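Re: the request from the purification team.
They wanted to know what the chain is likely to look like in 3D before they choose a buffer screen. I agreed to run a prediction and write the result into the notebook, where they can find it.
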Amino acid sequence: MKNTFLVVLFITSFIGFSQNTEDKEKSELYKNYREDQFYISVTYNLLNQKPGDVSQSGFSSGFHFGFIRDMPINEKRTVALGIGLGLSTNSYNQNIAISETNNLVSFNVIDESGINVSKNKFTTYLLEVPFEFRWRKSSPTNYNFLRIYPGFKLGYLFYNSTKFKSDQGSEKLSNIDNFNKLQYGLTLSAGYSTWNVHVYYGLNPIFKDSAKLDGEILDISSFKIGLMFYIL
């Protein structure tokens, strides 16, 4: 009977020790757990608030990548705040000819009735700071989960370019002063596992008030929709 008691005591102690060790390891795992800290996104870029004569053609693309510091705010670390730093390049194919004469930049809708245009686009390059409120159904060992990340993105435009090419000539411009240096908007990333929809809605115009079309301020903004890929 004494030996049986000792065996039972040993097994109980061992189970208790194992459980404590497992709980401690689990606690440490959750303590250091962060999610979705690197991102890559591909978007289709649209122009909002276009004047009646302005249209887009072809595929206007955007490429975005960067790092977001994940800062969980609950014990299970399924709710978090994120702040990051990234780079973005965005092209917009449309029918506004941007030209320069005597150091004066002008904006005009292309009359394609007497000209064959093969390329007309402007491109922006931005340093971006994304902010996100992050909700997800994840764990340190579960890599396939639902996520919903609404947020805000602030961008600093450090370079811009325009390209126009037709059968009557071509023109390239870079770093013209008509673009807004600061561009910002609302964002939303949502999806499951690898596949996530990403949306950006610009809150301010791409161009400054100095950009005028037919005497009116060219008050167009950006709307982007595409796919977001997160990496640990």
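For the purification team: Confidence is low (pLDDT under 50) at residues 5-27.
Please add any questions underneath this entry.
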